[in-house]
Amino acid sequence: MSMRPIGLGACAVLAVVLIVKAREGLGQLxxxxxxVAVAEPPRAAPAVEADGPGAFSLSIxxxxxxxxxxxxxxxALFRDNWVPAPSSAEGRDGLGPLFVASSCSACHMExxxxxxxxxxAERSTGMVVFSSSSLDPSAPHxxxxxxxxxxxxxxxEPEAHVRLVPVDVSPHGAAPLMTWRVELRTxxxxxIHDAVPSVRMGPQLIGLGLLEAVDDxxxxxxxxxxxxxxxxxxxxxxxxxADGVRRIGRFGWKATQATLDAQVAAALHGDMGLTTSVHPRxxxxxxxxxxxxxPSGGDPEVDDLKVQRLAHYCRVLAVPRRRNADDPRVxxxxxxxxxxxxxxxxxxxxxxxxxxxxxxxxxxxVAAYTDLLxxxxxxxxxxxxxxxxxxxxxxxxxxLWGLGLIEVVNGHTRLLHDGRARSVExxxxxxxxxxxxxxxxxxxxxxxxxxxxxxxxxxx
Length: 460
What we know:
- It is built from twelve helices and 15 strands.
- The chain is of the alpha+beta class.
- It has one domain.
- Strands 1-13-12 form a three-stranded mixed beta sheet, with no helix packed on it. Strands 2-11 form a two-stranded parallel ribbon. The protein has a two-stranded antiparallel sheet with strand order 3-5.
- Strand 9 and strand 10 form a beta hairpin.
- Helix 2 crosses helix 7 and helix 5 packs across helix 7.
- The N terminus is likely disordered.
């Protein structure tokens, strides 16, 4: 078959087609390049430059005038003492009749961390003791209820006196560390033997709004309850009821509350004996309800607007910016924090969604060093008291931000849920269960590397 040469007209058409195709390809490349160019890097969560005694008490920058006013109102509510009803202090009465503290700041001094009493003559600052029945640790104690109330309004006896007896132990074969033996006695001095007590310290309050802004789906995605990747870490998301909707808990040592409004209402009720629309009845056992009568400070004693102002105050407390991030030793410590496996639970970054009422929290990277999941921390840290889905040995991974400023803000470093650890190093050495491998890796470090890792933690 003979081949006929292509005419000039056909060549011109072909040339036009090739040019068009080339331009289409160039356009696609240009579009892809444009897409890459316009993709914004992840935004960092808002933070403040602060390293003094007031470092935990600043609001995030950029609040509107209305939000700043709400912050000031919440701050006043947080720091003012409540009093028993009736009182001339309108809107601040209704305390008790049984309670642990008369103000929020009593447990979170300078918005920081509580500590246990240092001797028998001292009252604790920011300590609460949960109580359950030894016959059924998941149920409140029949006489004490779910939480021991060491204080009472005039004319009413407190539930019990709490004494923490220091005990030296050697968990995992480590050097002797200190923990507590909890002694409970009635006001008359009789020992209470049938209770399962669990000591808890009030944590620092910075960054709570950012933790609230992390989507439930993000927390669930990090969970691995069956340990399918066989790394020994099996974090679980704590499903809780939030106004009739299943949500992921993220507040409290066992992640029992999903929102800051719920956390505030629970603290007002359990710690101060104040009713809200969420908890409309006094925090009393049935026996106490039958024998204790006290005037009410209102119905409820803390209205929804005050709860919202307190929640807003906690929500916009700012995280102090990291310090010494360029220090070579701190950078080496950061690498060691990863290589020892600490990041398996203390995740360096989480991404928020768009559900927060604070627009500055939308789609930002949160460097809280937590996964907000429950982890089994072993028998050494177990309190033997289940709480919701959380077992007696499971605890939510605590955020680490502000760790290096606790001493500056509160004058002490008492860590873990019950304040037993007197240093960051002691807190690490208590880690067991899912964290045992990371603890062993830390113990195996040389002195210089161990100090570098601790220097990194103090920089957060």
